[in-house]
Predict the 3D structure of the following.
Amino acid sequence: MATSFTLPDHPTLPKGKTVAVIVLDGWGEASADQYNCIHRAETPVMDSLKNGAPERWTLVKAHGTAVGLPSDDDMGNSEVGHNALGAGRIFAQGAKLVDAALASGKIWEDEGFNYIKESFAEGTLHLIGLLSDGGVHSRLDQVQLLVKGASERGAKRIRLHILTDGRDVLDGSSVGFVETIENDLAQLREQGVDARVASGGGRMYVTMDRYENDWDVVKRGWDAQVLGEAPYKFKTALEAVKTLRAEPKANDQYLPPFVIVDESGKSVGPIVDGDAVVTFNFRADRMVMLAKALEFADFDKFDRVRVPKIKYAGMLQYDGELKLPSKFLVSPPLIARTSGEYLVKNGVRTFACRQTVKFGHVTFFWNGNRSGYFDETKEEYVEIPSDSGITFNEQPKMKALEIAEKTRDAILSGKFDQVRINLPNGDMVGHTGDIEATVVACKAADEAVKIVLDAVEQVGGIYLVTADHGNAEDMVKRNKSGQPALDKSGSIQILTSHTLQPVPVAIGGPGLHPGVKFRSDINTPGLANVAATVMNLHGFLAPDDYETTLIEVANK
């Protein structure tokens, strides 16, 4: 039976108002102290939204079960956050999908594993991904189960190509993760399985670029993983990580590429014809570029030198529209009937803008892991190119003002009923661990919000400002009492990861019905409640299976 996309009219709120949806990436709510970069920054616009109309400012949950992750110890991230914001419902995500497939054994029965298994008799199984327990892109325990399960099902030669983290977990934690996986592989060797780490490097310098920002990052990984070539050669992964970390200014995120070599100096694990490859990250954005290099015959982003004939599968499918990769171990969440699709099919003309580093967030992820337009006659997606070749703390304003100016022009053009943007500063600069730069980043994001809200004011529109997860509001690791944690030398430990903090939702604008206020009867509102809220602001009621709206209309 075909889905009806016709939305009922809201009984009180009118149609026809321009609605601006602004997502501040990495902008949570936490206590004010010197490590809260949002508090430290000059943010008069966001301050005025918070303090000016209490009934039009609220906090929602942006991590854990509220966004489909396994537990409330799991940090939110931009992808699951934007999925929830756009879908209006909570779907099992990433780690949770993989956990379920491993627990049930379904992962071993499905097409993806049986496809790569065809290479086990004669070839090597290569596993590429982030070696971390951060739970944002991958998880160490899943990698351990994958290695164990594959060895039990015929894999006789296994090679790991590891990427060190230091971004979603503490810098330096790579050493412990490598020790753990090396111990597992040693036990397998005792059982007759030839299992070793073959190559590695830091996630931000090797392999894990995204949105085609810097293909050199992927090429460094390709050279080490496929060609077996890297500037550094070691006998073991533990020796590699310890040695490279001892260099001045070294950190896990930016370790240079290395390969493991045998006694003769030859790489122990280049990827060759007849091998199988699995990229074991469950999060899509930083695996798509490598997936293209592994899978696309027509590829011109860098010289691959040698393109082995392999059987390749992702842990998940990373892009549903591109069908990339074509084989995967765990089926993705099926997110249909997103708010974006409903609104476009009800005549809402939509403009979405973001910069390259958050290219997919207010489009692909918002639209349920789907590339492209629902109706290109009613939608326009604009990408502002990100700076390349630098770390984000060097240019903390990023492209916030350019995004805001493009969005202002879209609002004033009268051609759109909704504008939707992502301002990445708090998250991308927060990840660098540079507190002073993150303060500048938050100020820039606030200035960008002002540009958009001023345009909303001019056209008599409505705004909704929110965030996808926390980051910039707490930049220090804390002990159990909530105080900054110190390392062995007595120094504070900077936090570069996302947080478990709630995020704001603010509404307003001259077009907002004067009786609209946030409800107080929702037990634990989360990001998924935002979609129904936006539909209401457009004058529609949300579908019955959507998480309930955050707003109500009081008589005034």
Summary: The chain has 17 helices and 16 strands. Residues 435-458 form the longest helix (24 residues). The mean pLDDT is 95. The two ends are 42 Å apart (CA to CA).
